[in-house]
Design goal:
The protein is α/β, with parallel strands linked by helices. It is built from 10 helices and 10 strands. It has a 6-stranded mixed β-sheet with strand order 6-7-8-3-9-10, with helices on both faces. It has a 4-stranded antiparallel β-sheet with strand order 2-1-4-5, covered by helices on one side. Strand 7, helix 7 (about 175-190) and strand 8 form a beta-alpha-beta unit. Helix 3 (about 95-105) crosses helix 5, helix 3 (about 95-105) runs parallel beside helix 6 (about 145-160) and helix 5 (about 120-130) crosses helix 6 (about 145-160).
């Protein structure tokens, strides 16, 4: 089953085609990686999917439902969640309270904190804390976490909302090698439970997580396949990878 489908999706800015007729299908539960040099259109494509930017051509379908150019909040409610490069968490709340608020269906943060969240949410938060590896940090304030821990917490906030499709824009940016490896483990554990689309430059990380890769170049799909197929593609080598291929994880 196709979870996310893009049909000839594109956008122009002052005559410049930042994304030019991109079509792709991401299967339910698949972890797909978007590769491409700076300016290839990766982040703009994420903007089009999430509603941050309106497209000028094409369609975005979520399980067959047309979400093209819907408001961002409607796209989020339909089941597409996005994590940006710069993490954003509730800095004055504990890690646990951050996750409780994200998991709650009650929109008022103050009401949640005053009346509590309930056993169902507590159990869900315990599960997410274990998944993102922050059980020992659950009572620390969000503002006191390291960069890597903040990234994992924001990913946890996204998971708590239970989106059908998760969009991640460079989730390992600024991380140490050890933090990057842990992030790979987290994403692989989500495979099958969520459909995930990842923009990433760290080639070792890509090799570790990728099931299938889509390569963008100048706003268009240049190639698509598994790691071995992408490494062998002469067009990809010329446009992006060079002679080194996709490095093995360290």
């Amino acid at each position: 089953m196709t979870a996310l489908e893009l049909q000839s999706l594109g956008v122009s800015f002052g005559g410049f085609k930042a994304v030019d007729g991109v079509s792709l299908r991401v299967a339910d539960g698949e972890l797909r990686v978007l590769l491409g040099a700076n300016g290839a259109g990766k982040t703009t494509l994420m903007d089009l999917i999430s509603g941050k930017t309106a497209s000028t051509t094409g369609r975005v379908l979520l399980y067959g439902r047309d979400l093209t150019n819907r408001p961002e909040y409607r796209i989020a409610r339909a089941g597409i969640g996005r994590k940006f490069q710069i993490p954003s968490v509730f800095r004055e709340l504990s890690v646990r309270h951050n996750l409780c608020v994200a998991a709650s269906r009650e929109p008022s943060i103050l009401r949640n904190l005053r009346w509590g969240f309930g056993r169902g949410i507590d159990a869900r938060v315990d599960e997410i804390l274990n998944l993102i590896g922050l059980e020992a940090e659950q009572h620390r304030l969000g503002g006191d976490l390291s960069h890597g821990q903040t990234q994992w917490l924001e990913l946890g906030l996204l998971i708590a909302q239970d989106p059908k499709v998760i969009l991640l824009d460079e989730p390992t940016a600024g991380m140490t090698a050890a933090e990057t490896r842990k992030t790979a483990q987290i994403l692989k554990s989500l495979r099958g439970r969520h459909t995930i689309l990842v923009v990433e430059h760290d080639m070792a990380f890509v090799r570790d997580i990728a099931e299938r890769i889509t390569v963008l170049h100048l706003g268009r799909v240049l190639a698509e396949g598994n790691v071995a197929e992408i490494e062998r593609d002469p067009r990809v080598r010329q446009a992006y990878l060079g002679s080194h291929g996709i490095a093995s994880p360290c």
